[in-house]
Amino acid sequence: MSRVLEAVAQHAFDRPDNLALSGDRLRLTWAELAKAIRDAMEWLGPRLESCDAGAPVAIALDNGPAWVVLDLALIALGRPSLPLPPFFTAEQRRHALANSGACALVRPAHDGEGAATLIAAEPVFAERLPFPPRALHDGVAKITYTSGSTGRPKGVCLSLAQIESVAASIVEVLGREMAQVHMAVLPLGVLLENVAGLYPTLLAGGRYHAPGLATLGFGQGSRPDIPRLCAAVADARATSLILVPEILRGILGWLDGAGARLPSLDFIAVGGAKTPPSLIVAARAAGLPVYEGYGLSECGSVVSLNRPHHDRPGSVGRLLPHLTLAVRADGELVVGPRPFLGYVGEPAVDGPWGTGDLGAIDVDGFLSISGRKSNLLITAFGRNVAPEWVESELLAQPEIGQALVFGEGARALCAVLVPASASAGKAELDAAVQRTNAGLPDYARVSRWRASRPFGTDPAEVTGNGRPRRDVLRAAHRDFIESEG
Asked: CA angle at residue 278 from 190 to 411, to 5 degrees?
């Protein structure tokens, strides 16, 4: 039995009239949520009877109560779910559906569509798909496709036990009292929001608030309308959020410029990319209770987390209690005991898994990440440099909005920089680079740089949560990177 569904049933019995789930136009009590899940099962179940028993069902909906209800209904039906993030290209979406052997796609209903129904007040349609079934790993409950650095993402297979262990660990380390009003900012199709936002909130008995992404100012791609986002947080009196560093930086800049505060917030988890310690410090000075964490889809979304009373800025916190962690001689992190089942179409993962990330654990158990093993640069002088380290130091400068560092086989490092604002010209950027260099050893200093338009102007340049695709941007700036000055 699912721990999350058991919690929903228990909350519906103990306090049926308390609010459990809300969106733009709908608010559901615990009793109403339990009934909505049963109704969704009754509608969806017959439409899947002719499907292969182990074939996944894809969800392609905007954030909202309907997404939540359908996700929980699939758990109750014992059907693997395949969340599709809204930022996937048409090719990535088709690849995920075909690669996983998805048998059906639940999507918004078109006007006049015959077999549509209302799920949590949203018209939806279950479309049968023509893809042949795939042999998936035993026990798979959710398949998540990470956009990563390629156009053909891999399907990460997770069991219900693996997913719910992450959620239960988050409740354990944060405490049930932290679950008040969690607001979804990231798409629910992203595993981090689904597993680390939704499920812990339901387990702990808080209210999960899932407005549509356009309501939050995400109507024009991955870059939000920050004032609109902040207004939504304030209106909802949200007490917790999950953010990526780029969105945190935008919120901090807006609050500083507007002289505003978001006093309802008690906890903000930030992850998805390395966060400069100076950003954490500045955010806290502005009243934002920000705590950095670390995770991967292959580990069910969260591996470690800073939290109140166990916090060390510059680290990504302590390991969640259901996991084990080892560090190989080359610095690669290995997570156990078995964080995921394996990739679609590849052999099962039967034990600990090498993450490809480089890091270290200090004497107090705090984990720090230095970069990706695959990104490690070896300069012409034989020095190893994790580019994420230097990029983090560059991003600590207020004049620099985005940064990528290159230098494989070169005598010195170079950087492609995006100004944080139109007022940051050549002189300001150069001064920012020099300040950064002053705090770095000789071998890690940036000897030359080029200004660039924002990464993501071309959607192929960034992942869905805004992380630059290093290989794409390297190709775009090859002339600069490969020149020696």
From this structure: 90
Write down the pLDDT at residue 149.
Answer: 44
Tell me the one-letter amino acid at 91: E
Kind of pairing between the strands at 367-372 and 353-361? antiparallel
Neighbouring-strand partners of residue 327: 333
List the domain boundaries for the chain: 1-373, 376-482
Full-model pTM: 0.86
Beta bridge partners of 269: 242, 291
| Dist CA 290 CA 288 (whole Å) | 6
The answer to whether 393 touches 276, Cβ cutoff 8 Å, is yes
Q: What is the DSSP letter of 412?
A: S
CA distance 138 to 160: 11
Angle at 37 between CA 35 and CA 38, to 5 degrees: 65
Common-topology check for domains 1-373 and 376-482: no
CA distances from 371 to 91, 385, 388 (A): 29, 9, 5
Q: How many CA atoms lie within 13 A of 207 on its CB side?
A: 21
The yes-or-no verdict on residue 431 having pLDDT over 70 is yes
Angle at 254 between CA 253 and CA 255, to 5 degrees: 95
The answer to whether the CB of 416 falls within 8 A of the CB of 422 is: no
Spatial distance between the Cα atoms of 293 and 302, rounded to a whole number of angstroms: 7
- The two tokens of residue 99 are 């690669």
- Looking at CATH, the fold of the domain delimited by 376-482 is given as GMP Synthetase; Chain A, domain 3 (3.30.300)
Reported as a pLDDT band with limits 50, 70 and 90, residue 109 is very high
Q: How many CB atoms lie within 10 A of CB 271?
A: 25
The span from the CA of 74 to the CA of 68, in Å, is 10
**What mean pLDDT, rounded, does the chain reach?**
93
| CATH class label, 1-373 | alpha beta
